[in-house]
Amino acid sequence: MLRAQLAPRPLPLRLAPALRAAAAQGLARTLRVRVADGPAFRQWARQQPAAQLTQPGPDACTLTVVGLTPAQLAAAPGVEFVDVADRRAHEERRLSNSDLAVNAISTVHARFPTLTGQGLTASVKEMPFDPDDLDLKGRAVNPGAFAKPYSDHATAMATLLGGAGNSDPLGRGAARAVRLATSDFARLLPDDATQLVQAGVSVQNHSYGVGIENYYGLEAQAYDQQAQQLPQLLHVFSSGNVGSSASSSGTYQSIAKFANVSGQFKMSKNTLTVGATDPSGQVAALSSRGPAHDGRLKPELVAYGEGGSSESAALVSGISILLQQQYRDQHAGALPPAALVKAVLLNSADDLGTAEVDYLSGFGQADALGAVSTMRAGRFFEGSATPGTDQVFRITVPAGQQQFKATLVWSDPAAAANAATALVNDLDLELVAVGTGQRWLPWALSAYPNADSLARPARRRPDHLNNAEQITLTLPPAGIYELHVRGFAVPQGPQAFSLAYEINAPGLTWTHPVRPDNLRPGTTATLRWQWSGPATATARLDYRPLGRPGWRVLAPSVPLAANRTTWAVPDTTTLAQLRLSTGSTDFLGDTFTIVRAPALQVGYACAEETLLQWVRIPGVARYQVYQLGATVLEPLLQTADTVVVLGRAQLPTLYYAVAPIVGGRVGRPGTTINYTTQGTACYFRSFLPRQLVAEIVRFEVVLGTIYHLKSATLERQRPDGSFEAIRTISPVTSTTFAFDDQPPAAGRYLYRVRLDNVASQQFYSGTEEAYLLRAGLTQAYPNPVAAGQPLQLVANTTGTVTAQLYDMLGRFQRATTVDGQINQLDTNGLRPGVYLLRVQSEGQAAQVIRVVIQ
To answer: What's the CATH number where 254 sits?
Structure first.
């Protein structure tokens, strides 16, 4: 199919832009080629002594060659295009922050709680993510094959795409129950189709890039081919994070802030490229933008990604999974074509910046709620176009609507490598008002290579570049409309297509906070909504705690078209509600909670039981305790107490969390903890001497809890190894306390603490040492000391101490400087006998210690 389009090309046009300069240098390198006849080329290559064929491509006509120069390959018989081979891909920034409300993902979770991605599989192509990550637990495909070290970036992308929120509510992704596979981005060509099918992958996320590349290369071609081979598989790419840069080659060379998408594989037509916005919804300065090499629209979408377009792509991949599930659940288990998912995403996007489509934000900000609503309501058509055909779809638009929008998408056949224009099958979309005969064409941009031209607003005109076309109509008159899909030029037909539409009535939809959102008291929250109405409209913002009379005015005039505002959340605990009022119309938000999340702590972790505790939250009478199940947090129990004791049956489960219950509604849990890693053993957090060497021995004790404790006793070890009680505190009223002791003579002593509870059980700390020594003095331990063993010098001084060792005849043996409380003197090579250790402290009289070496 591809070869039929090809005409003989001059040798330079058979080379990728990056290879044209290298061709003149005559250097051999690893190259990728597209040939007309795979077996014939292999036969030719075997006759070239330096040529080696390495990894295969996606088909028999795409090959990787080592040992020949670009010019040699370009001149070889049957070679259609010579491309760069795999470059080193790089992750496009790490996870910075996450807010699922920006793209209304959290609203979908609240409205459609069964949409979780259950039964579907997404692949994260870069480096392996951590399959043991708490938020991905139990859902990695073939985790035993994941190579270490795991990538933090890949783990973050997998979490945004499909995190379960087990570690914390912020660890929840778009599709919290999706299965997750990994793939290596060392190979920039598509993964093997058979392996993708066997793994059940229906969405693959690509949050990586290479340099700016502006041509339709073999990788772009291969992704478009795979879209024909696997029509239900959607590839989602990040646009890149070089939005201020300029391309060094191609039609748009040297035009800053345009045509800087990072990688020729993103020039593919049937994939989805996603740019980044900040929390306010504005496109980030770092986000790479279009056009593609031939003037096509890139990126097609934007989404929130404060750390870069990596995050944006991962979120859109997750939304795509939700759309696939929604379709599957309504169509007897069948998955939708990727073109339909793409059409729904583009059609539901919220326009940003310059009106209609643009090279900065594409079709706009991804809107998960609008996309799911479109798919759920079946507001789409599917068909097939051939040359000269005209398929007509009728839609009735009621009176008083704010906007009508329709988007046509088709998976276009792959073009020839390095094609000046990548579009092969050209379909046309047109809207016709049946009653009046008025017609509207899709929005299209200027592709002229000039910054001013590329920045011009879109105009209505035929689009012969893109395989995605959109028509919008503001304030459409009531009546019957027809959407026409025509086969303008379909050389490789018939061409399947998908057509999504929506009719937006005037109104407002709250997207944050929604049930079951929780706002933290005393913080500044961003309130979000979707407004369909006049751009100049304003509304009064009101708040009320449930159960209390009246509304409180928060802001007298909020611009509705901004779709967001900030609010200083009161320091209280309550169920609450917000409303926006304009004229005589009130838009009530969902009931949500304002409450602090409890910080779960370990009181003790003993062999037979563990105690978990948290500080009581004012206004909260009950709490929900969770334990981590096979993949998600599962309810364990509810309690009015702030303590829960786990018996042996629960102890094999390591992870727990607790959530407040406000007004009968369970709020969001706090951070999940592993009870074995919190620094608390069986009651004891720490037992340490305040000073290791002192005139009075003092120990400080920190416990995890005093729950059911009766007394605490300091014990000192006797010479025979047994322990005697020194001091007792009863009752124990604080988790932090101290013990003092002054033994009868200077020396080294061992101590421990014994706890007694109301059930007459005893719990012991570890053993700690302390030295009793008068200020300014030094002692030597052990004494006698075995020859060759270190002699410890213990000094109760803050200054430097010099120690000199002499034998009994006064002959100098060795010296050391004591620069801390405990130092060592080496006894290696010393004969057994009695020695004199002369110790001199700053500002003190010399001290002589008799030392016996055995």
So the answer is: 3.40.50.200
- Residue 492 in any domain: the answer is yes
Q: Contact 206/125 with Cβ under 8 angstroms? A: yes
120-136 pLDDT, tens digit each: 999 999 999 999 999 99
Instruction: Classify burial at 788, counting beta carbons within 10 Å of its beta carbon; exposed 0-12, middle 13-18, buried 19 or more.
Output: exposed
- What percent of the chain is predicted at pLDDT more than 70? 97
70 and 188 assigned to the same domain: no
Segment 623-634 mean pLDDT: 95
From CA 59, how far away is CA 32, in angstroms rounded?
Answer: 12
Tokens at 594, concatenated: 């304002």
Smallest CA-to-CA distance from 673 within 633, 638, 701 is with: 633
Does one domain contain both 476 and 512? no
Beta bridge partner(s), residue 785: 853
Total-model pTM: 0.88
Choose the final residue of a domain: 731, 747, 772: 772
Peptide bond connecting 299 to the previous residue in cis, omega within 30 degrees of 0: yes
Q: Are residues 388 and 327 part of one domain? A: no
Query: Is the domain of 218 the same as that of 290?
Result: yes
Q: How many CA atoms lie within 13 A of 206 on its CB side?
A: 26
**Distance separating alpha carbons of residues 236 and 348, to the nearest angstrom:** 17
pLDDT at 94 over 80: no
How far apart CA 345 and CA 520 sit, in angstroms, is: 32
Residue 6 in this model has a pLDDT that exceeds 50: no
Q: Using 50, 70 and 90 to split pLDDT, how confident is the model at 617? A: very high
Alpha-carbon gap, residue 740 to 718, rounded angstroms: 17
- In SS3 terms, 69-123 reads as CHHHHHCCCCEEEEEECCCCCEECCCCCCCCCCCCCHHHHHHHCCCCCCCCCEEE
**pLDDT of amino acid 743:** 93
Q: Are 233 and 268 in contact (CB under 8 A)?
A: no
User: How far apart are alpha carbons 272 and 261 in whole angstroms?
Assistant: 12
Closest CA to 342 of 225, 519, 466: 466
Average pLDDT, the chain: 92
Q: For the chain, how many structural domains are there in total?
A: 7
Assigned token pair, 214: 């502006």
Compute the distance between CA of residue 251 and CA of residue 263 in angstroms, rounded to an integer. 16
Evaluate whether residue 212 is within a structural domain: yes
| 541 within a domain of the structure (yes/no) | yes
Residues 417 and 432 in one domain: yes
Question: Residue 196: which H helix or E strand, with range?
Answer: helix 193-199
Q: Which pLDDT score is estimated for 25? A: 61
Which residue, among 829, 818, 827, has the nearest Cα to 852 in the 3D structure?
827
Q: What is the CATH number of the domain that holds 651?
A: 2.60.40.10
30 falls in which pLDDT band (50, 70, 90)? confident
- Domain range holding 562? 507-594
333 and 388 in a single domain? The answer is: no
Please name which of 298, 261, 587 lies closest in space to residue 465, comparing C-alpha atoms. Answer: 298
